[in-house]
Amino acid sequence: MSKAIFLDRDGTLNIDKGYTYKTQDLKFFPDVSKALNLLKKDFKFVIITNQSGIGRGYYTEEDFHKFNNRLVGELEKKGIKIEKTYFCPHHPDDNCGCRKPNTKFVEQAKKEFGIELKNSFVIGDHPNDVELGRNAGCKTIYLLTGHGKKHFKELKAKPDFTASSLFEATRFINQKREKIKTKEEIEKIAKELKQKGKKIATCNGCFDILHPGHIYLLEESKKQGDILIVGLNSDKSVKGNKGPKRPINNENARAAVLSSLDIVDYVVIFDEKTPIKLLGAIKPDVHCNGEEYGYDCIEAPTVRKYGGRIHLIKNYKGFSTTKLLEGI
């Protein structure tokens, strides 16, 4: 059987200006084609979209098809095949059987394309996308694009992952679990790597919702050594540092996203508020930190004890998960 990605359309693939139907208004989010091309080898793509604008009289089914055909055609030019688009044309008050989160279209796609639902994903920017996935027995990813931030507090069902973009969602899907190690495993690995003359760089953080600032930190950290080991604060640790409402994504989901990045060699989850015990086990040659922590950061004595040094990295254009969440 095949696996599928069930995609919402407006606010997920293309920018949603509100009842989007004019072909001249088609504009994809950045990296949409890149994200889907990373997934197309293993998944079929199906669009499921509520189009209440038809039922409300804002545009016709013909208008919908013109817009959708252009969207599908543009993706095809990028090497991406949409197997089929299912749409609900009804007004929300019609109580139809096809409007998300009803599973009618997922079940139809299952029969038409031989889809195994338990290993498939529903991705969208509205709570009904998460509910659809739960109802159908799929894994779910909630996007903060489109109306995602606006409706975040309305989520009744918790998604498997919350992503800032479709591209970040692909990172969660394409995880590499063999990179995720325990403290005991990484201590042994680090010792073996040093015996082979490899230079080890480390950095740490919550990495809750991955954003450009995180990627920049990881890229700059990787430049400091042959191997990059990332210490990841556990859920318990994040709550202790950030408060009871964090993290948004659990430790396994956050580790999965980090493990998908080519610049990250290993990920280790730690429970303490700081990574001092972990650094004592790894004994890195270089530990990387944000410039705001300074060369005398809390990790410095441990790193220097074993002959390592602290490397500071400038903040990237003011990006932070806290600022992102303040918009929700």
From TrEMBL:
InterPro entries: Cyt_trans-like, HAD-like_sf, HAD-SF_hydro_IIIA, HAD_sf, Heptose_bisP_phosphatase, Histidinol-phos, Rossmann-like_a/b/a_fold. One of its GO terms (biological process) is carbohydrate metabolic process. It comes from the Bacteria. This is D,D-heptose 1,7-bisphosphate phosphatase. Belongs to the GmhB family. GO terms for molecular function: metal ion binding; phosphatase activity. One of its GO terms (cellular component) is cytoplasm. The lineage of its organism: Bacteria, Candidatus Nomuraibacteriota. Residues 203-297 form the Cytidyltransferase-like domain. Keywords: Carbohydrate metabolism, Cytoplasm, Hydrolase, Metal-binding. It comes from Candidatus Nomurabacteria bacterium GW2011_GWA2_40_9. It is found in: Cytoplasm. The keyword Magnesium does not apply.
